[in-house]
């Protein structure tokens, strides 16, 4: 189990900002910077909305980051992707932005090598 991943299950609060690659969610006056895919950011809502996102809390010696997902299915796919050697958090977010978790799961189950080996910028 990855250190720290269970610390924050979700964040529920007011969407304050949408920036390139992340959002800021205000929870009782504390702004959480949450990294998200572009597709996830499009679906989250509008500035001022109350939102709830599932989170992955990454802790390393030189970095603490929070990654956010609109659904539990997206979070689970992210966790699977980063468990693969050579796939980091940023790559996993890019993959999530270009492929729905259900499409990815179908490709894996059906052993659709063609789909799984496409260029990672447009692989599903």
Verbal overview:
This protein is an alpha+beta fold and 124 residues long. It has helices spanning 38-44, 72-82, 89-98, 101-109, 113-116; strands spanning 10-19, 22-27, 30-35, 50-60, 63-69. It has a five-stranded antiparallel β-sheet with strand order 3-2-1-4-5, with helices on both faces. Helix 2 packs across helix 3 (89-98). The radius of gyration is 15 Å and the shape is globular.
Features:
OB fold (Dihydrolipoamide Acetyltransferase, E2P), five-stranded antiparallel beta sheet
Structural class: alpha+beta
- Which blocks of ≥5 consecutive residues have pLDDT under 50? none
Global morphology:
globular
Total domains: 1
**CATH second-level architecture:** Beta Barrel
In the CATH scheme, the class would be Mainly Beta
**Largest β sheet strand count, sense and barrel closure:** 5 strands, antiparallel
Percent of residues in β-strands? 25-35%
Oligomer: single chain
Secondary-structure element order, as H and E? EEEHEEHHHH
Helix-residue proportion? 25-40%
CATH superfamily (homologous) name: Nucleic acid-binding proteins
The largest sheet has its strands arranged as 3-2-1-4-5
Number of strands: 5
Mean pLDDT: 84
Specify the number of helices. Answer: 5
How is this structure best summarized?
The chain has 124 residues and is of the alpha+beta class. The chain is 33% helix and 32% strand.
Q: What's the structural blueprint in terms of helices and strands?
A:
Layout: E1 10-19, E2 22-27, E3 30-35, H1 38-44, E4 50-60, E5 63-69, H2 72-82, H3 89-98, H4 101-109, H5 113-116
Antiparallel strand pairs: 1-2, 1-4, 2-3, 4-5
């Amino acid at each position: 189990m990855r250190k720290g991943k269970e610390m924050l299950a979700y964040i529920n609060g007011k969407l304050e900002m949408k920036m390139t690659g992340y959002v800021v969610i205000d929870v009782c006056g504390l702004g959480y910077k949450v990294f998200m895919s572009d597709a996830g950011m499009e679906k989250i809502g509008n500035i001022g909305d109350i939102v709830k996102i599932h989170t992955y809390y990454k802790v390393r010696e030189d970095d603490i980051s929070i990654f956010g997902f609109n659904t539990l299915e997206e979070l689970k796919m992210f966790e699977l992707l980063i468990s693969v050697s050579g796939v980091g958090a940023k790559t996993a977010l890019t993959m999530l932005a270009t492929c729905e978790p259900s499409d990815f799961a179908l490709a894996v189950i059906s052993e659709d090598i063609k789909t799984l080996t496409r260029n990672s910028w447009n692989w599903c």
